[in-house]
C-alpha cells in the first residue's frame, strides 16, 4: 500500500498546468462571409485573447456560442490586434457564464480544440497553443491594478523567471504596503526576453509590496506560502530568490530569432488503427521547447498537436487509411522550424474487442512472481501519460517524468523480458480508476468498476494484457483494495460533497463545475485545462442530508497561504462528511488494537465499513468483473485492516464462488489470493497480537459468532486475543515427515495465503530470513504458498525506507534462498540489476520519482527482446541486451531454470532433520507418478544423514554421488552459490555463471 501524508491544503505552487491540447483544424464551410454576434443583453462579458505566432494566419476570427445560446454565423467575428503575437475580441454573453469557441483564418482552416471546441468562461481568457488560461497577456491583468496615489509615486519594475516552470503566460498578484491586493489572478506580465516576464507597478507612497505569481490557470508560486517581499526599483524573482536593485536580466540580450533545426528521420509505423511517430531531436542555440506534429488524411481533417518528446502516439484512427505526418520544432522564444519531410503510414483493421480470458489454473507455487508498479515500469503509449497537480512540485516536471508514465502497452511489449528472466506470474498494482493528488500507484481507488484510462491504450486494454500474458503461459495477479477508497469516496457508492467557494482566495483551488464532464483521470476538462479536475466535488450549496456540522462556515484557521479555512472543506473521518453506514468515522489510534480494523489509516484512504452489506456488495461486484476477465489471482492490500470474520464470511467465499461459476472448480482451487498483513516486527506474533499477525489470516474461524458482521468482528477479536498466541492452530503442511511427503490438510484453510512478512523483515541477511521464516511455519496453514520477497514498493528489510542495498553477493544469496526454500519467490521490478539501490522508496511529492525506489524502469528496457522459454532469451538488442547481461539477471535466470525443472523446489515440503549446515534443508514432492527429492545447501557446506540411498546429481555442477549409507556431505559452494543434489535427478541445468558454478 502507499502511505504518503499530504498537507491539508496544497500550497499555491503545488498545482501544475495540464498537458496541452492543440486544436483540430477542420475544413468547416466558409461560404458565409457575414459575421453575426448572438443577441444578448449586456451582462457578462469575455475578452478572448488568441496567440498568433504559432499559427501565423493572415486573419483571425472567433466563432462562438454563449453557454445555452446560438453560434455566430461562420466564420465568426473578426478579432483585432492586441499586442505582439496576440489578437483579441470582447463579446457580450448576456446571462451566460461562459462560451464555446473555435478559431479560424476565415479561409477554411480551423482550430476547434481537437473537435471538442474550447470551453471558456468570463473575464480575460487566453488561448495559446491549445492551453486555456485566465489573464490579459498584454498587461493590465483580468482586473486593473490597485489605484495608485495621485501624482508622481514610487515605481517598482518586477522581472519574473519562468525558465523552469514551462508557463505560457504569467501574472503578478500583489499588494502595495498599506494598500489592497489585486483581484485574482492579478496583473498580466509582458514577455521581456527568453524565460523572463516583466511588469511595472505604480506604488504611490508605498515603498514595498507583497507579491505572488501565477500562470492564470490555477498554478501559483507564492514563495512556499510566504509571498515575496519586493521593494522599489528593479527586482528579479527566479527560483524563489529575490534580488533587489537588480541588473536588467534582459539587457544586452539579442532577440532570439533563430529557429531550431528541422526534425530529421521522421518515421511513422502503423499498428492496427494506431500510429507511432518518432524522429531525431532538433537542435537550437537556446534549446528546443517542444515539437508540433501535424497529421493530415482521413475524414476528420487536419490535427495539430504539441508534444514534449520525440515520440507521438496517435490512436483510434480510421481503418485502412493513409495518414501523413510532419513535425516542426519550437524554441522557448516561439521560433518555429520548417516542417520535416512527410512520413506516411497506412492503418490496418481495428483490433476486435478482446474476448474475456480464463485463468491458467495451475498450481501457483510453480510460478515465480515479478512485481511491477505498472505506471513506473515501461511506457508503451506516451499519449496517456499524466503528471497530475503535483507534477511541478514533486520535481517530476523538471525530469520530464510524469507519475503516470508506464502502461499496459509498455508491459505487454516487455512480457518477453519478464519471461526471459524466468517469471511466469506478474503482480501488477491496482488497475481501478484512481483519484488523488498523487495516485499513480493505484491505491486511491475512486471508481472500482472502471479501469484507469491512464493505463490503457487502443489495442492494449487490461483485457489485452491478460490475454497477452496467458498466450505466453504467464499469469496476472491483480492488486486489489477492499479496505478503503480514495478520500473522494467511491463512485456509485458514496462520494462526499465538499464545501468550496470560488472566491478571490480559493478560485485557483476549486475548479469551475462542468456538468457535461466526467472525470476519468485522462481526459482534460476544457475550462480548467486539467485532467485532475475536481469541479464535481466542490459545492457552495449544502447537500441534502448533510451531516457535516456548520457547513461552509469560516473557522479561525488559515491555510499555509494565509487563506481562511471553512468547515467541511476537506474530507476527513471526523468531519461528518461520510455516512457511518458506509465509512468508518475515526482515525487509527493503536496499530495493534481493535481500531486498526475500523478506522482510517490516512486522510487519502477513506476507510470502508466492510461489515456493511452495501459496501460488501459494491466491492464483490467490482472484483467479480476482473475475475470474469480471467485474472489468475488477487494480491490483497491492507488485509489486516479488515476483520478475519469478514474475509471468511464474505469476501473469500465470494471470490471462490465467482471463479467456480465462471471458470470451473479447478481454476477456483488454484486462484491465488495472497494478503498483505503488514507486521513490521521480527517476532513470530506481531507484538503478541494474534489478530495482527500474518499467519492468523490463513485459518478459518473455529467457532460461530453473531450473525451481524460488525458484532462478529468484535467477538472474534476478543475471543482470539484472550486465547492468545499459545492456543492457535498449528500445521505440518509445509514439513516433511522424516523423508516422506504427506498429503497436506487444507480443511481449515481460509482461502487467503500471505506475504511472508517475517522473512521480508529479516532479509537484511539471508540466514536471518531462513531461520525466522521456519519459526513461523507451524502457525501458518501452509507456508509452501507464502509469497517471499526482499523488498517492495513500501519497505526494505527491517522496515527500511530504502531499496535493498546489501550488495550483489548478498542479493545473490537472498535469491538462492528464495528460489530453493519453501514459498513463492517474488522480485520487485529492477532488483535484478539492483535498480535504485539505497534510494528512498517513497517520499510522495516532496522529491522527484526519478530519485526514489519507484523510478521509471523503461530506460533499461529499450530495444527488442524475445524469450525462447522461461529463463532463456533467444535474442535481445539495444539497452535491454545490456540489462540482460548483468550478473544477477543471469543468476535469477538459472535459478528459475533449476526451480522449474525440479518439482520439489516448487511445491515440496521441507525438513532440516538430520542435517548439519546453516542454510541447508531437504525437500520432497510426491504426486501420482511424480516423486521429486532434493538436498539443498546455500553458501555453506552441509552433511545430510538418514536420507534415501540412491544416485544424486547436482543440478548446478552435474556432480553425481551414489549414497549407500544414507549420508551425503557437500563442501561449501561459496557466497550466494548453491548445491542442489536431486535423487535420480535430471543432471546439470543451465550454464555456469558468476554465482552458480
TrEMBL record:
Keywords: Carbohydrate metabolism, Glycosidase, Hydrolase, Metal-binding, Polysaccharide degradation, Signal
Signal peptide: 1-35
Classification via InterPro entries: CBM25, FN3_dom, FN3_sf, GH, GH13_cat_dom, Glyco_hydro_b, Ig-like_fold
Keyword set includes Metal-binding: yes
SUPFAM superfamilies in the cross-refs: (Trans)glycosidases (SSF51445), Fibronectin type III (SSF49265), Glycosyl hydrolase domain (SSF51011)
Top-level taxon: Bacteria
Biased composition regions of type Polar residues, renumbered to the chain: 390-399
Region Disordered: start-end pairs: 239-261, 340-365, 377-401
Bias (Low complexity): 380-389
Domain Fibronectin type-III: 259-350
UniProt-recorded name of the protein: Alpha-amylase family glycosyl hydrolase
